[in-house]
Specification:
InterPro entries: Catechol_2-3_dOase, Glyas_Bleomycin-R_OHBP_Dase, Glyas_Fos-R_dOase_dom, GlyoxalaseI/FosfomycinResist, VOC_core, Xdiol_ring_cleave_dOase_1/2, XylE-like_N. Helix content is 19%, strand content 36%. The chain is of the alpha/beta class. Strand 14 (239-245) and strand 15 form a beta hairpin. The protein is globular, with a radius of gyration of 18 Å.
Length: 307
């Protein structure tokens, strides 16, 4: 049952060098730089996103993800979910309004896979970049790089994915849209959605807690994904895999790395999910096709390069 979580709202990533990171996320990926706060964190957004920001970059000694935030319907929902998270057994912390510039109070909580998440109800809305909300043009002039439209989802690795499934589905109201089962029928991958999308977050079973695989950004068309591949080669960016298609979710995709070693995906297409849909199931004997539908061969780096 849906419980008021609307969509992914933001992700905070650790980068080793801010100037190099902006060359990746702003100039290559094409996100819009919004501002820098007093702590030196840089805020960015995709051009279609109405909220002030969706990506926060923090310079640190090691790469990875600090947290992902999800926007909920209103403060009443936020209050109720905060109580539900405490009852579930999460360690819960309330972050005051303004700690992220333009964002209301946030409720941060841990998860059985060791990742940090947060929910919030209010964020300043600045509208789509370069496009009016009245009689809007099809797209804004002045976009750069891959012209990423929005932060779409992230893929995370951790040990207790069953516990995290209960957290996201029973407490936060996500649906299990797709899964991978091993030969014993145990779930080794899960794709969860709070919307009609194929997934808003995904988890892969992994011995270590709290690992980050990638942040994903949406492009409009397959032609845009191919153009992204051209830019990756033109800029000599480290390529992981693609362009190709996934079997899981059927998205058309390419993966590459930022200068700090964090993996980025841009993709288009993909399946949709309604709450009455049964989960789509893949089996591990078809894992090659599930991950890379065309090659049908696993890329070891794709499975093991984590931050």
């Amino acid at each position: 049952m849906r419980k008021g979580v609307m969509r992914p709202g933001h992700i905070q990533l650790r980068v080793l060098d801010m100037k190099e990171a902006l060359g990746h996320y702003r100039d290559l990926l094409g996100l819009i730089e919004v501002e820098t706060d007093a702590e030196g964190r840089v805020y960015l957004k995709g051009w279609t996103e109405v909220d002030k920001f969706s990506v926060v970059l923090r310079e640190a000694d090691e790469p990875g993800m600090d947290f992902v935030g999800y926007k909920v319907l209103n403060n009443d929902v936020l209050d109720q979910l905060q109580k539900d998270l405490v009852e579930f057994g999460c360690n819960v912390e309330e972050i005051p309004a303004g700690e992220l510039t333009g964002c209301g109070r946030r409720v941060r909580f841990d998860s059985p896979t060791g990742h940090m998440f947060e929910i919030y109800a209010e964020k300043e809305q600045t509208g789509k970049w370069g496009v009016s909300n009245v009689n809007p043009d099809a797209w804004p002039r002045g976009l750069t790089g891959m012209k990423a439209t929005r932060f779409d989802h992230c893929l995370l690795y951790g040990d207790d994915i069953d516990g995290t499934l209960k957290l996201f589905c029973d407490v936060l109201g996500f649906d299990l849209a797709e899964q991978v089962l091993d030969e014993n029928g145990d779930r080794v991958a899960q794709f969860l959605t709070a919307s009609m999308k194929a997934h808003d977050v995904a988890f892969i079973k992994h011995p270590e807690k709290g690992k980050f695989h990638h942040a994903s950004f949406f492009l409009d068309t397959w032609e845009d994904v191919l153009r992204a591949a051209d830019l990756i080669s033109m800029e000599d960016v480290s390529l992981d895999i693609g362009p190709t298609r996934h079997g899981l979710t059927h998205g058309k995709t390419i993966y590459f790395f930022d200068p700090s070693g964090n993996r980025t995906e841009v993709f288009c297409g993909g399946d949709y999910h309604y709450p009455d849909h049964e989960p789509v199931t893949w089996t591990t004997d078809q894992l090659g096709k599930a991950i890379f539908y065309h090659d049908r061969v696993l890329n070891e780096r794709f499975l093991t390069a984590l931050t």
